[in-house]
Amino acid sequence: MAQSATPATKPIRLGSKCPNFDAETTQGNINFYEQIEEVVEADTAGLDFTPVATTELITFTDLQAEFAKRGVKLFALSTNNTPKQRGGFESHEKWVQDVDEFSGTPLKFPIITDVDGTICRAFNLLEAADAEAVKADDAVGEGLAFKSRTVFIIDDKKQFRLIFNYPAAVGINTAEVLRVVDCLKTAARADVRTPANWVPGGDVVIPPKYSDAEAKKKFPGYTTLKPYLRVYRLPVEQTSVDVIEDIPEAAVQTFLAVEG
Known about the structure:
Blueprint: E1 4-5, E2 21-25, E3 28-31, H1 32-35, E4 40-46, H2 51-62, H3 64-69, E5 72-78, H4 90-102, E6 111-113, H5 118-122, H6 131-140, E7 148-154, E8 160-167, H7 174-190, E9 204-205, H8 212-218, E10 223-226, E11 229-232, H9 249-256
Parallel strand pairs: 4-5, 5-6
Antiparallel strand pairs: 1-2, 2-3, 4-7, 7-8, 9-11, 10-11
InterPro entries: AhpC/TSA, Peroxiredoxin_AhpC-typ, Peroxiredoxin_C, Thioredoxin-like_sf, Thioredoxin_domain
GO biological process, one term: cellular response to oxidative stress
GO molecular function: peroxiredoxin activity
């Protein structure tokens, strides 16, 4: 399958629609939109066989079942691609083996190959002038074009809901990505906002759109800290984590894998 993606024509913002693309992955060829039609998706971009990116893949692998329980599919993407003589990309497959060695369970989500940086350009991760540097990455393995790593959370409407951009020296906080998923799902389910450092079970914030009279009906027993800051302890059945049930390991693998 030929890789294709539409280059971004304007900066990506939260709420923007993510670009579609066709690409090869460690689990076969995909059309991106077809893989995320009915799920929330978290996408990470990094480089093969670099130490920080490897630790990130390990931690995402360790938490992959938790993401699956929340209906979140995981994809990794890299511009480092070492072609094998008979097709495929050897570097990704060997990298997965390294990750599996240190993870409590094998990596079950696909790594997307971005041979010439086209996909990264579509997601505004690279400039057009970086094309030659992307090719150089394969030779030197030092990430000449990539000076950072990025995490996207994309919803079932194919809209960006979160963008984390980390400098190359700083690893992604994988647990924070999972926490944000819980925040987004709880906020949507209960029509609330989540305060700083919120975790399931903590007080939520009542949106300003509700008058005090409306808030009393919808959020009985809420507390007013300031006229603009009203907090409420959600019933457990309305928080994201408390409605999640464990799913079998086989179901995790089926959910995270590329759909044929």
